[in-house]
Specification:
The protein is built from 22 helices and 18 strands. The chain is α/β, with parallel strands linked by helices and 625 residues long.
């Protein structure tokens, strides 16, 4: 044992030396890997050092056994007995620490719960299991985040995928994988027959980038929740992203309500974890057998690893129907409503009124009212709401029925994984605009921006400040400028910048396009902008959420939607440094005309079309000669 500890001690010392080397600190992936190994060895080293110190104390006490003073001998013997007990305890602890561990034990997990055989009963049981695991994570003080969910009409779950983060999550939950079964008499069963339902559960260790390398060229990314031309034309509540890994055929979908960038990041977590699971199964030479033995098909004939039985109690109806079949009169009812019941009747009512994403809208507004998360709503489905909460929720629903955007009701919109204050003074940041940030960061990381490590970057027509703040967070060495013609918009942008800790790094200027910067003779290495590009003919046909609640100043691009785009293309070379870049978002139909303008201007030397996640041409990228 002690020879093994000596090897570990030598390795621990080598890791400490490596972690202090500048080249290791610079390589963050390598640094994380070595730091993780160092942290894993720390308990062994600290325990062994404590063990060694006690051994030394025992040896010192033994020298006192030869003391002629009987009292001293007695004290020395008592000290040796106490120290020996501590030494034996530490020796047992060392033996335990030296037992080989599952390398995944300390990882976070991707928990996948899917309803199998049993129809609605299986979906209801899947929802109960989700809440059970959610309550357990609360007790463990872990963090739960929904990556994807498919809810049935009666509050059940066809599929839910969650990320659970915390200490030793995989070690605690890895044995939960398998088929779970329930037997009970549903309330809808008239003859008292027992129904058997099955749910499959897969627990996958979260894979980090260093665990699985994915070639971006092997991915196809789609947005399957889009409408019309996208961009400024629509204001959707959700931004679902589907990622297909072409070599393996694995498909991952994430359906968060706000950010395509965030959904892509979440989807990549699930994809890496599934690929790691697949690779580990391949190493054990039983790819399909491994997966099948874990979750199977969810059929009743599957081998049941974990059984949950609830016989003889039946299953209570998920909610009592509101009077009038789910009309607003029902929402005014005086009965006590649980979260589960209220979400269902509200979703039905919003569906009846043809409100977009009704279930998601109901969840977002209720979570906003209760100052909690959508995950917490599902974990506390049976919690009743008081009269004041019901009345306030009704008021929020009335605002949504008047087609006020959800983002205005809650006061926030997520963009690039950050919450931004929004209101009628600014255009609500669209998921498509995240492509501008992505391209700006890509140019910087590839060393293509002429300003080197400290570029000058301008967000033209900043509105809420979303673009400028996202770029400032990603490119910490850059000097960021943000301009807008509206002082009200700039005030909101300043609030958002302070909120995200970049207020001192962004210079906010009031001005009409590039006029102010041309007069001040300020030049930039990169200009990015989401200017107004809705055509005058289209304005009346816009959804009321856009037409009636968002500022016309940020939407109206005049007759062909090209008025501001054309001005920016013509003015930018005067304020761009040599080889500087211009990134412009626009409607796909306007891109040919924009490229034509650039090609006729001999001050530009390069232009390209960039597609958004919906695979629409969304951004024009051009470079000054």
């Amino acid at each position: 044992m002690f020879a093994k500890i000596k090897e570990i001690e030598d390795r621990y010392g080598k890791l400490e030396e490596d972690l202090a080397r500048p080249e290791v600190i610079k390589d963050q992936n390598l640094y994380r890997k070595l730091a993780k190994e160092h942290g894993g060895l720390s308990p062994i080293i600290s325990t062994f050092r404590e063990y060694s110190a006690i051994e030394e104390e025992i040896e010192e006490s033994r020298t006192l056994l030869d003391d002629p003073d009987p009292e001293m001998k007695k004290l020395a013997k008592e000290e040796i007995d106490a120290l020996s007990a501590d030494r034996d305890r530490l020796e047992e602890k060392l033996k335990h620490l030296l037992v080989p561990k599952d390398p995944n034990d300390e990882k976070n997990i991707i928990l996948e719960i899917r309803a199998g055989t049993g129809g609605d009963e299986a979906a209801l049981f899947a929802a109960e299991l989700f809440r059970m695991y959610g309550r357990y994570t609360e007790l463990q003080k872990w963090k739960t985040e929904i990556l994807s969910q498919n809810i049935t009409g009666i509050g059940g779950v066809k599929e839910v995928i969650v990320l659970i983060s915390g200490q030793m999550v995989y070690s605690r939950l890895k044995l939960e994988s398998g088929v779970h079964r329930v037997q009970r008499v549903p309330e809808t069963e008239t003859q008292g027959r027992i129904h058997t339902s099955a749910v499959t559960i897969a627990v996958l260790p979260e894979a980090e980038e260093v665990d699985v390398e994915i070639n971006p060229e092997d991915l196809r990314i789609d947005v399957f929740r889009a409408s019309g031309h996208g961009g400024q034309h629509v204001n959707v509540t959700d931004s679902a992203v589907r990622i297909t890994h072409l070599p393996s055929g694995l498909v991952v979908s994430c359906q968060d309500e706000k950010s395509q960038h965030k959904n892509k990041a979440k989807g990549m977590k699930v994809l890496r974890s599934r690929l790691l699971d697949q690779q580990q199964a391949e190493q054990q030479s039983k790819i399909s057998e491994e997966r099948k033995s874990m979750v199977g098909s969810g059929d009743r004939s599957e081998k049941i690893r974990n059984t949950r039985r609830a016989t003889g109690h039946g299953y209570r109806s998920p909610f009592d129907p509101f009077p009038g079949g789910g009309t607003q009169r029902g929402i005014m009812s005086s009965k006590t409503w649980t979260i589960k019941e209220l979400l269902q009747v509200t979703s039905d009512y919003l569906t009846e009124k043809k409100i977009e994403s009704p279930r998601l809208c109901a969840e977002i507004l209720l979570a906003h009212l209760l100052q909690t998360t959508r995950v917490e709503l599902y974990l506390h489905f049976e919690k009743p709401l008081n009269d004041r909460e019901i009345e306030t929720y009704r008021a929020l629903i009335r605002r949504r029925l008047a087609r006020e955007p959800v983002q205005h009701i809650t006061g926030v919109q997520e963009f690039w994984s950050m919450d931004f204050q929004v209101g009628p003074q600014v255009l609500i940041p669209r998921p498509e605009s995240e492509v501008l940030v992505e391209q700006a960061v890509s140019l910087y990381k590839r060393g293509r921006i002429p300003g080197g490590e400290h570029p000058q970057i301008l967000d033209l027509g900043t509105g809420s400040g979303a673009l400028a703040i996202a770029v400032a967070r990603e490119i910490k060495e850059a000097s960021i400028w943000a301009s807008d013609i509206s002082e009200e918009a700039l005030n909101i942008a300043r609030i958002n910048a302070e909120r995200h800790g970049v207020g001192e790094r962004i210079q906010f200027k009031k001005g009409d396009l590039l006029t102010r910067f041309r007069s001040e003779e300020v030049t930039f290495d990169l200009i990015l902008s989401n200017p107004p590009y809705i055509t005058s003919l289209e304005f009346d046909a816009l959804p009321p959420e856009v037409r009636n609640f968002e500022p016309m100043l940020a939407l109206d691009g005049r007759e062909e939607g090209l008025y501001y785009i054309q001005k920016i293309i013509l003015q930018s070379p005067e304020t761009l440094n040599d080889h500087g870049w211009l990134l412009l978002e626009m409607d796909p139909r306007q891109i040919p005309k924009a490229l034509e303008l650039i090609s006729k201007d001999d001050r530009y030397g390069h232009a390209a079309r960039i597609r958004d996640y919906s695979n629409r041409e969304r951004v024009v990228l051009s470079q000054k000669k």
